[in-house]
Amino acid sequence: MHRSHLTGVFVGSQAIADGFITPRQLRERSYRRLVQGVYADPALEFDHRLRCTGVALVLPPGTAIGGHSAAAWHGAPFAAPHDPVTVVRPPDVEWKGPRGVRVHRTTLAAGDVEQRDGVPVTSSLRTAWDLASIEPRGTAVAALDAMVRAGSLTREALTSMAGLGSGRWGVTRVREAVPLVDPRAESAPGSRVRVALVSDGLAPVPQYEVRSAGSFVARVDLAFPEARLAVEYDGAHHFVENQIRADDARLRRLEAAGWRVIRLSATDLRDLDAVVARVRAALAGMSR
């Protein structure tokens, strides 16, 4: 007997075989397809973790959700809903995965995988390694910043991991990323901008409190205190009317305290070299 509506996440062919739904109902109802053959109740919030949950239903034994996808369980939910789901598999498991899944072949040691919400996910430390070795540096550091801030990792554990990884695949990239981790960062875009600036030899201070005559003025994303230069990232919520007024008032307070502010948006993040050049030009202007 068929149910009127399936809830949760399910494999379509299995639900049909078990008599929970007919092929016609699967086609005609508004179930959300997560990846090929896997569906979800449309009432569920559609985010990257939901897609990972769907992929987990078709994973072969010995594999796990990893990297940028696993980071969502460790305090860094930055992967977008439609970003590829990262899966790690040992060399003896042959599996390419459906479209929308990125499979990384690697060795998985005992303790590298744990169950989270019924999903096999790499541990926080293993996730950190894969992030640093697979992802672009800015993306990796942003996730590691958040994981340390969330308490899933410590900087000491990351440093130890990098030091013990000699001869391991990706160790050079890991050792380049780990020193850049700073849990003071409070947003992924802010981390990416900081990494670009630091990689170019600059030294911005994250989440700096600007004070004037002993009074608090504002806390800025990135600061060059000696130059009184702030770099701020304006996310989508900054373009809501009430927030625009609050941001304008905050900017006036910073300017009255003698600070200049470079404001960045999502468009600016597409060309971080240009952002670095803009910051360098502002700093050079102060030195003349």
TrEMBL record:
Residues 220-283 form the DUF559 domain. Pfam families: DUF559 (PF04480). This is DUF559 domain-containing protein. Gene3D superfamilies: VSR Endonuclease (3.40.960.10). It comes from Geodermatophilus sabuli. InterPro entries: DUF559, Restrct_endonuc-II-like.
